[in-house]
Model the fold of this input.
Amino acid sequence: MIVDVPLEFYKYFAENPERAALEYLSIPAGATNPFFRNTEAVEEALHKGMSVPQIIDEDTYMITEDGVCHDDAARYMHIDLAINRDGVGISMCRAVGYEPKMMRVMGEEEYSEIEVPIIAFDFVARLKPRVEYGEREMAFDAILALIEELQFRRQYNLADGLITFDRFQSHHMISSVRSLGIPTGLLSVDATTSLLKVDFTRQDMIRKIGVPREPSAAMGALRDALYEHRLILPQMSMADQSRTWLEKEIDESQFDPDKQKVVKIEGGSDDVIQSVAGSVFNCVNNATDMGFMPDVDEVEEDDHFSGRVGMSLEDEYINEDGYIEDDYEPDIEEATDLPLNTMLGH
Done:
C-alpha cells in the first residue's frame, strides 16, 4: 500500500510507521511478529472452498435455502462473543475425511502414523446487532434460535458434536443449549488451559481435560490445519476490498513471546479467527481417536475441571469481562500427564 503522507505528519511516520498508520490513518499495519507466517499456505487453504456458498445471512441471521444438511457427520462450533457484545464470531465445521500424520501418541516413545481430520466448514460468519430490530447489543436469544434451526429444521448433527462458548458470562446460553440435547461447554481460545471431550456417560455430556499451560493451543490447531492443507472454508463476507474477515484477522494475529500466546494487533479484531480456531480445536479433539482420552472407569472425579455449569473455579480467577485471568494455573498433575503437542499432532 502506498500512502501520501502530509508533510506535518512526516516525522511521526518516519519514526514509527506502523503506529502512525494506525493513529492517523486508522490502518492496522499488520502483525510485527505474525503467528501465521506461511502466507502461501494460508492463501491456498482460504481459497480451496470458495465455491461453497455462505449459508448464513449476516444481516438477518437467516439460513439460506442452501443451508440443509445431507449427511450425518457430527458438527463442531465455537461462538466468540465480543467483550462489549457488539458482535459475534460464529462458525461450524465437520470432519470430511482423514489423512495420515506422523506423531507421538500417548504412552509411546516413538512417533507413529495416525489419522488427522480434513475439516470442512459449513459456514463462517460475523454477526452484528440488528439495528432494524432495535438491538443495541447481541441478543442471546437470536443465537439460540439459530442453533435450534440448524439442529432441528436443517438437520445438522450437533447432538453428536460440540458447541463451545468463550466467556463465563455465557452460562445462561450453555444451559439453554444443553437443554436441547447438545454437548456444550466453555473454551478459552485466548488462554487454552483445557480441552473438551464429548462424553455421553456424563450428565453434562462433556469431560473437561486439563492440559499443561499452552495458551496458543487452539490457534496452533488452526495453523496446523491451514499449513497442512486440511481446511476447506466457504465463502465469507469481506472486511475490505481484498480480504475476508478471516484473512484480515490472520494478518493481524501476532505472537506475544512474553504472554506466550497469540494476540491481535492494536486496533485489530479477532472475533472470526477465534471462532474458527475454536471450532477446529473441538473437531480435532473429538473427530479422531488420538488416544488421549482416558477410559471413563479409570478417571477420578475432578470438580476443578468437571465442565459443569456450576464448576468450582475460584472467583478471583475470573475477571469482570468473564474471562479466566492469565495467571490462572490448572493442577496439571491431577488433570493429565499427556504433553499438549501430542494432542495437536506435533
In short: The chain has two domains: 1-30, 33-344. The two ends are 36 Å apart (CA to CA). DSSP finds ten helices and ten strands in the chain.
